[in-house]
Specification:
Length: 264
């Protein structure tokens, strides 16, 4: 049986308590009703929490990321004898079509328009995949038709939609840059400043204004300590992951390697 709730919370960040509680409620429903539960689109950290809690309760977890190369994923929590059908994930792939010769719609413009115009939750939209020639969205199948009918302009650009087979999904192409840095500490503000060539004051302001996440969790504490493998994202700048630590300099500073993904 799964651990008592009070013991479970010790394994997660305080900010994750509400998500853990909701997940435990769904696990109890699956267990007592001998049914299945489909999550919304989750980031990798949320998916890890769901998987660890469900498996600790003796349930099976199916992930759409095992079948489709995406960052966000939907999970199915079910009894161990459940047989999976890919249709059970209820994911629809849409192509966004517009005159690219004159416009290039960005991720934030697309997502913001959809959420504001339809009045839906972010968790109903999965990955938004872009390159110079194509834009694709993964969405909850329940909202696909509504989205196609109601969202006809994004940033004043006329758009149309086409429903595609999931086999036509484009691969996410992210440019990564390996960046060696020297940091005075492992603090979030220090590494953020080094990664994006910012002043410490500018880094602190970004953190305190809720623009920075660590492992998909919003962090507003500049002195938050980081470690190798941590993933940091900063709105407007992109993301970086700490991939290696090579020790200290003679002056006591830390030699690190970052992998920068997108942004500036």
């Amino acid at each position: 049986m799964i651990e008592t709730h009070s013991l479970l919370y010790q394994h997660f960040n305080p900010e994750e308590k509400a998500f853990v509680e909701r997940t435990l409620d769904k696990i109890e429903q699956v267990t007592y009703r001998y049914s299945q539960y489909l999550t919304a689109f989750l980031n990798p950290r949320e998916a890890f929490i769901v998987e660890s809690l469900a498996k600790g309760s003796g349930l099976h977890v199916f992930s759409s990321a095992d079948h489709y190369q995406t960052e966000t994923r939907r999970l199915i929590i079910a009894p161990e004898d459940h047989l999976l059908s890919l249709q059970d994930f209820e994911i629809t792939l849409l192509s966004l079509n517009y005159a690219r010769k004159f416009n290039q719609l960005k991720h934030g413009q697309i997502l913001g328009t959809i959420l504001n115009q339809l009045g839906i939750k972010r968790q109903l939209i999965g990955d938004i995949l872009l390159d110079n020639e194509r834009t694709q969205l993964l969405v909850d199948s329940k909202i696909a038709q509504l989205l196609m009918e109601d969202v006809t302009k994004i940033a004043r650009v006329p758009v149309t939609w086409t429903s595609l087979s999931l086999s036509e999904m484009m691969l996410s192409e992210t440019e990564e840059e390996t960046l060696p840095i020297i940091a005075s500490s492992w603090r979030l503000d220090s590494l953020l400043a080094a990664a994006y060539h910012l002043s410490r004051q500018s880094a602190v302001k970004l953190i305190e204004t809720n623009k920075v996440k660590v492992n998909y969790q919003a962090i507003t504490y500049p002195a938050q300590p980081l470690k190798v493998t941590d993933l940091v994202s900063c709105r407007g700048y992109g993301r970086f992951k700490i991939t290696d630590y090579q020790g200290q300099t003679r002056q006591g500073k830390f030699k690190l390697t970052l992998s920068k993904i997108g942004g500036k």
